[in-house]
Design goal:
The first copy, chain A, is an alpha+beta fold. Chain A contains four helices and 15 strands.
Amino acid sequence: MLIRSEYDIRFRLPKPTTMIAMLRLHPSVEHDLEGSEDLKVERIDQDQNREIPAREYIDSFGNRCLRFQAPMGTLRLSGTSLVRHHGNHDDVDDEARQHPVEELPDDILQFLLSSRYCELDRMSHIACELFGAIPEGWQRAVAIRDWVHDHVRFDYKSARPTKTALDVFTERVGVCRDFQHLAITLTRAMNIPARYATGYLGDIRVPYAGPGDFSAWYQVYLGGRWWTLDARHNTPRIGRLLMAVGRDATDVAITTSFGSADLIHFHVESNEVTQTGEKVPLPVAPAAAPAITASIAPLNS
Amino acid sequence: MLIRSEYDIRFRLPKPTTMIAMLRLHPSVEHDLEGSEDLKVERIDQDQNREIPAREYIDSFGNRCLRFQAPMGTLRLSGTSLVRHHGNHDDVDDEARQHPVEELPDDILQFLLSSRYCELDRMSHIACELFGAIPEGWQRAVAIRDWVHDHVRFDYKSARPTKTALDVFTERVGVCRDFQHLAITLTRAMNIPARYATGYLGDIRVPYAGPGDFSAWYQVYLGGRWWTLDARHNTPRIGRLLMAVGRDATDVAITTSFGSADLIHFHVESNEVTQTGEKVPLPVAPAAAPAITASIAPLNS
Amino acid sequence: MLIRSEYDIRFRLPKPTTMIAMLRLHPSVEHDLEGSEDLKVERIDQDQNREIPAREYIDSFGNRCLRFQAPMGTLRLSGTSLVRHHGNHDDVDDEARQHPVEELPDDILQFLLSSRYCELDRMSHIACELFGAIPEGWQRAVAIRDWVHDHVRFDYKSARPTKTALDVFTERVGVCRDFQHLAITLTRAMNIPARYATGYLGDIRVPYAGPGDFSAWYQVYLGGRWWTLDARHNTPRIGRLLMAVGRDATDVAITTSFGSADLIHFHVESNEVTQTGEKVPLPVAPAAAPAITASIAPLNS
Amino acid sequence: MLIRSEYDIRFRLPKPTTMIAMLRLHPSVEHDLEGSEDLKVERIDQDQNREIPAREYIDSFGNRCLRFQAPMGTLRLSGTSLVRHHGNHDDVDDEARQHPVEELPDDILQFLLSSRYCELDRMSHIACELFGAIPEGWQRAVAIRDWVHDHVRFDYKSARPTKTALDVFTERVGVCRDFQHLAITLTRAMNIPARYATGYLGDIRVPYAGPGDFSAWYQVYLGGRWWTLDARHNTPRIGRLLMAVGRDATDVAITTSFGSADLIHFHVESNEVTQTGEKVPLPVAPAAAPAITASIAPLNS
């Protein structure tokens, strides 16, 4: 299967600003690339675009990061890639066993610790009460994922940069990253290494679900390897393309600006395409019942 | 000046639910009423509306509260009132002095304490550092109001039911109630009694500012009486109609439901009207520069 | 049974300070008083003590509060009382039914709302998951009390003025007031009115448990009356003497100072006495296993 | 100057537990070692001690970590080292310039981000208001350090594992690590890389200050190198021996146990010694005024 991904993101910068972008595919995906990844950093203007020099480096998690000094004005980050994908769903293995901590590789131990959005020190009692009775390993990992999926409601408007796993646990509403943060925290609390992942998850062989965005999911370490889990969508999917992994969203922000940067345009797409580059049509969704209106608190004027 | 206020609020209730509503004007406004306040609590249906019996009581803050048992289905709360208003702006007195705590009336002392959204125990050091050097009394009270107004950005989408004064201080974004909670907390920390107020604040003799809503402001106790301040709008206004006061938003929710209740319709208006009941036209706003686009974080899908 | 209570509390005040003290017995206990409550507010000095005039008022919860202007120097609050007590344990009634909210008296509704230390808005999902399946009424109320008692560890050193019910839920350690705050929050979340109580709970007909202090417990409203529960001790006790009730500890602080006040002496005792005023000896505790040493985190120098 | 450091730490383990210890000196100190570092991991018993095999690895921050499987029973971690130290105070350079972010080395960028105890997303407005007007570079870095030192009170009893920089900012009381977390957060918010450091800081050429402990300080990156700052002690000191660096205390815990472990003995010392190994006597402290009694809240029984 071929997957073509593309993005076009623009910021207005009031001042020159240093930026770090994690927009390249993860090194582990590189060998599946057909041709080279195309990526442009430009200052755009009425008359002409000017390319901004950017330098790549690998961070301590193994991600490909791009750093550049963005000039004042309008900045455009755009790119496309074509990936040959095996076409299979996310891997599943009911038998994947949990490693006792003493067996874990050294560089994996860090994914058992607290991080900005994952406060194990505040959630370990809760995790033990909820999942202590479930058999270790794969079963426990997916029980956590399912619990989060079933107990948290998605609401795009509920996003905020300060929201931690405990906030998600108490408020029970969140966006993609919030679902994963809560699941990661509960998973680590049960001594299963878990890390945050970001990348493309287009509507591929599933019905259209709205305008594209980058997506977040997470990975757990069981039976000697990392497995992909997703507390938000919670069904095995086809066509995730990994961009970066880290302790939590702090480590893998798509862009980090050291100065103000107003997002003025945002377009991301990831589609299955034919050999000739045409989009493969999506299946049609079954007719759904109308959505339940969520409660709205008055008095916000 | 005559002010006509009206509201029409509807909820869908999946089950019978007890509700408390603070939809009446405050007892202090009563003598300005022209005619009686009209208020209806109804279950609405295709064919007919059925009035729901409601009982009024006065809470410990002196507010008129309505309680009723709402049946399953669609609930409508609607009402109108006509108030003769003096037409003056909110009172201002640069000389209003701060009472030493020992002088304060007994029933005012409670407005120096912490409450759900006003954590004095976490903000008193901050308040002293910011406002300790400003002369006591009126000057200090408005310095606090102005600081909050200048340092917090309004964003309708930033509302959430758990947001405390400290959250507003750190996030610097909020809705009406958030501005007031932060100002109240900082004010109490400086030993000036402050309480939360809710009511109507229509666009009266100011340009149209968007669809109506109930509004929140706050009051400070100086020189032997309560004064109206508003950290959100921060200019003296004409035509506030008080509905309820309390320690913070917890005490004066427009409606409190002891069960789930989905808001499905919300209309509030408060306008100056002529003797014959016609709306007095509003002044036209001066042309404004286009609004700056606020920064939006990606990765929320 | 006769209970004699006494306290002697001293503060050093660097400046004159307004204080409010809740050191009197609650009006509901008054008719059990033998003689009058003795209470002194003094400034103490090498040579002589000088009485400080204090004025009593009743707050909105019905508590007797004392307010006075304390001069700079050493302040002493002391008092004794002798109460004729029925000698029975805290009341218990397995049949006490839960009122639907619509039946609750008006002035009790406030004890269903959030307050400074009781964030219902953050804990209602948690409460429903833990206790939603337990039958309503007495059974549910004591299930909450027992859960808190069993899941929170007492540690005197864990006290802090900012600790909320959610903090207690996540940290699982606390002092007296923390146990009650968590229990109150979970109870209110299940629509049972709950309020915070403070008073004397001496070692009466139980083995000596260490130096005395004021104590905190809580009350739930079931079957038309308030019942005493105590998530800290969690066994019916004899000889509680109520001093004050409120939404949470904010409302019933033994002393509130509007300025700095360093506690330099603290003595509280409450004992059963004979008709002639001698202390009734306590039963001897069964020999206990040595206490388990709690974990101590290094790196605090 | 010669510095001899030693520690003896014991835990009681109810079950076999995996542990990670950061008890070795940092690789950067290695070339100053006289002889080899002595380090023992033992299970101790009435009759005999049994050495526990431990394996060393280097984490992503460059720290030497020891991992081992501790058996049930009493675990003892002990060691000594002798280091030849230059005898100078911590380096100071008023001219050290702040790098624009675009100049910073790749592997230093991570020390500009949020971490568990350092919530930049909640403190950046505060940092800008407090320090935005102070000249960049060394001057701004020490202004932050001094502010924290002057506004936070040390209290050993105020330690808790969940305390973040924002908690320290609001509560204004903390232990060693809390001072550094607040300073690190404010420093990063001003775009100066800052990292947490832990190691020995014995009473060397300063008066005796009480029983020893490991200590925490922090480092800032200015003028092409890391500088040691210490918001707790806030005077240049002699004889810090670095053990580990990381984003915050999460990364450099002296010991991390994946299971319960009760600390039952804790002894740490770091002293200047003569060539023959005798402790160099400390200077005598000037007579001090008696300590001010801190305020103690009653009602914690």
